[in-house]
Amino acid sequence: MTLVPTPIPSPLVDRVAPVVPSTGALRPVPAGDVTLTGGFWGDRQEINARATILHCLTWMERTGWIANFDLTANGDAAPRHGREFADSEIYKLLEAMAWEIGRTGDTELEELFQDLSRRVLAAQSPDGYLSTQFGGPGQPERYSDLEWGHELYCAGHLIQAAVARARTVGLDDDLVRGAIRVADHVVAEFGPAGRELIDGHPEIEPALAELARVTGDERYLRQAALFVERHGHGLLRPGEAEPAYFQDEVPVRDGTVFAGHAVRAMYLAAGAIDVAVETGDDELLTAVERQWQHTLERRTYLTGGMGSRHDWESFGEDDELPSDRAYSETCAAIGSVMVGWRLLLATGAERHADQIERALFNVVATAPDAAGTSFFYVNPLRRTVPGVPALADEPSPRASSSQRAPWFEVSCCPTNTARTLASLAGYVASTDETGIRIHQFAPAEIDTVLADGSPLRLRVATGYPVDGRVEVTVLVAPERTWSISFRVPSWAQNVTLEGPGEVELGDCRIALRGAIPAGETVVLTLPVEPRITHPDRRIDAVRGCVAVEAGPLVYCLESVDAPVGADLAEASVPVGAAPLRGDGDVLALPVAFGASASPTNLIPYHRWAERGSSTMRVWLPLQSDQTIPEGEEAHS
Ligand SMILES: [Zn+2]
Asked: Ligand 1 mean position to 67 CA, how many Å?
């Protein structure tokens, strides 16, 4: 039985990409035009396909979260399982599956998708409403708890799954039709003549804007704009929370920095950018870019992680970036990839892709273990006591699990990671008016068309991020002058670019321009030698410390690499010490645990906690020759 639907001839299907703005400085090279061929991300995408997606499906059957849809479909008043937002995890999994089916045409996965989609849609009411938490027998009324109920948040994730489906197989699909009915219901309920309210957790905003792009139906865009504009007017009853927690304190266009719940802030920002781009609202776009820039400068960890408070999973104030109490939720980093990518496409400013790289290598890659079946929810930069192994057979509490856990009571991060990895090829490159721009460096085959319709095929070979050589072989190229441009990461000094053409330097990028024919090779060399990084002097928590990085990778010292019995709390680095390359991605750095320093291995942060329980530090104190005068006590 063939279950993969025949792609319908639709102009939409050729834009198989996570975000498809109708205008902007850059146009995404669709995920469908980029094949990751192994390497750091290609390998992770395969593990995601082979292990993570089925792992999520299995856990959601086991926990009864999928069966919630069966209960709703049958009008069964039996107790529902999981948290109020559990539906969204099924939707994010459907999105991951849709991207994966689009990538590989996997017929077995298509069968699972169809089955899951059928069970979800069976729970939809005739008027389009779809939730397993509200409106059923014995359940609270629909939209009776917009602050905490996550109804529109869940609807948003269903719509995003449908957008992925529409972009991979076309609009003629049951899930797409179901999501359109949901969107129509939302527009009817919350439109200009409806309830003047918002959801406590943004997500419906980018989802509706993207649905408008897929369907061409402007009502969804107008509704997304309404939701964005309604934020910041105190429409929600915050209860114990602050209005800032739900981004309901300051209107989006008046904000100066992201605040409140970090994931919510990122999702709303993504929606605001989508609305700004589609409506030509430059003021709104500038407002979001301003908040983003301030947040990157003052409220973002070295790893690209965001959100420094466990309380309310929120951003702290400027420079409030403790290592040990870092929350840095995996989903917030994914949200920052969504925002960075949208700003990059809208403005063409290559610096926005730096945060994408930093968050991907140091948070998104950190979350899953090597097998792709257990995950970090929070990503602190220091662990002061050895972690306790997570529960193998039941969901772990979200933040207290100090080791990766197979599943969580709040399990947003595993499914979010799955959908991101499945669509990752869509974040590699874009086209501008003259040629192609490479934003992320990964072994890949790129087969696309430039802005004027001329075909371009490239093969990218690289051992990045351990090796800084990125070799691009031109397989098919236009006969006219064209350009290939590469992001120059902010950490990269002395980048070289070789090839037949004229080298041009731009803001955070380097390009080769010429009539570069097929058969030629272009070589970018990035300096990925290990380096010492000093913290921003405004951050109290890490003053006097250094970190070690190599290329985009943040490194850490893990107790399993320290001398037996050594306490990481006593670790220090001699002034002037330089990290050296060891085997593979391992570095060696002189570290002292007493008087004298000896070379000690550091590993990429994304691999920490893979060798059992340990303590860990990213920031290491510099040895000081200043002694405290006698009689004066040291204070902590
Ligand atoms: Zn999460």
From this structure: 22
